[in-house]
Specification:
By secondary structure, the chain is mostly beta strands. It contains no helices and 23 strands. Strands 1, 13, 15, 16, 18, 21 and 23 form a seven-stranded mixed sheet that branches. Strand 19 and strand 20 form a beta hairpin.
């Protein structure tokens, strides 16, 4: 299972149907039911197979051409139907109805489906979430629908990905890049806390692609942990007034990969309160605590191991060194025999 946490940017409204009503969902399949105990889902029952779009559930959303979005939902059918397919994806809400869709197979056990979709049909026509169910008979139950923007990668740990692992500090064990586990078997960074050293221990990371936090201060990172944890992250090397900014990140445990988000808009560990520029460095501190603003006196340092991957944020432009505005001085006139020239337009360079 791969989940998303902390995202406030879900573009879908009433994606969990807990309002008890369908709006703003529309289509002839919009039918919210209570499965018991206030657990609301959208239920459709297709009695005769036809065109996929004959039975449809949609919601209008605002997407941008060229951007990638993670489309996630839970779905299942009933035990009598046993198994059936639907069409699900993102597309236009009017002619020519271009769409980017998938055809998942539902069973009677709830499953979470997640697809990263890059919009490529332009911005001329507005967008929607699409569930077409008319091509097969049987029940379709849908819940927990979300569409969130997938930010560009600024640091990964595969050889071809950007960024690099720097030095650890504060007595933390050296972090190790190794194969992941569970739903992420790519290269990931293993972080092991050291309870016997400094509570502010961590590791420095270099972003070869700078992250731009001048307009949006939110970044995301994939995290795996067996236990619930909170840790501190920082961006460094800022181009604006706030050269270093910190944010807290949390994972609920459960030995699953989760995409967690964190926003650099609060003063933590004595750093600036709001990111305002482009940043070239990233720091992960092994420890932190919810609600704290300093490591001392309340942050503890229990034994912990967690894994991180796919640090994402809006790409920034690397700072450009300005061209000199003052010409180089003219060297004094001296006899050639008195000069050893390393580089000069006035003397012949001397080669060692």
């Amino acid at each position: 299972m791969f989940c998303s946490l902390g995202f406030s940017q879900n573009l879908v409204s009433n994606g969990n149907f807990q309002s008890g009503a369908a709006s703003p969902w529309y289509g002839n399949a919009a039918n919210v039911v209570d499965l018991g105990g206030g657990s609301y889902v959208n239920q459709a029952n297709v009695g005769a197979a036809g065109n996929p779009w004959d039975v449809n559930l949609s919601q209008d959303v605002l997407l941008e051409d060229g951007k990638t979005y993670r489309f996630t939902f839970d779905a299942f059918t009933d035990a009598i139907t046993g198994s059936r397919t639907i069409i699900a994806g993102l597309g236009q809400n009017n002619a020519p109805y271009s769409a980017l869709t998938y055809t998942p197979t539902l069973t009677s056990s709830p499953q979470t489906f997640s697809y990263d979709i890059t919009i490529n049909y332009g911005n001329t026509v507005a967008d929607r979430v699409i569930f077409d169910m008319g091509a097969a008979v049987g029940y379709v139950f849908i819940d927990n629908v979300s569409v969130v923007e997938v930010l560009p990668l600024v640091l990964g740990f595969e050889p071809a990905e950007s960024g690099s692992v720097g030095a650890e500090f504060g007595g933390m064990a050296p972090p190790v890049v190794e194969d992941g586990t569970g739903t992420n078997t790519t290269k990931v960074l293993k972080i092991v806390g050291n309870p016997s050293t400094d509570v502010w221990q961590g590791v420095n990371l270099t972003l070869t692609t700078p992250v731009d936090l001048s307009t949006s201060q939110t970044m995301t990172m994939d995290v795996f942990s067996a236990d619930p944890i909170t840790f501190l992250v920082k961006v460094t090397g800022g181009s604006g007034a706030a050269t270093v900014v910190a944010a807290a990140a949390s994972h609920p445990g459960g030995s699953v990969w989760q995409t967690v988000s964190f926003t650099f808009n609060t003063s933590l560990d004595g750093q600036a309160a709001l990111a305002d520029g482009t940043y070239t460095g990233f720091v992960i501190h092994t420890y932190w605590a919810d609600g704290e603003t300093s490591f001392f006196p309340n942050v503890t340092k229990p034994a912990r191991t967690f894994y991180v991957d796919n640090i994402r944020g809006k790409h920034g432009t690397p700072p450009v060194d300005p061209a000199p505005t003052v010409a180089a001085p003219t060297p004094p006139a001296r006899p050639v025999g008195d000069v050893v020239s390393i580089y000069s337009d006035a003397y012949t360079p001397y080669y060692f």
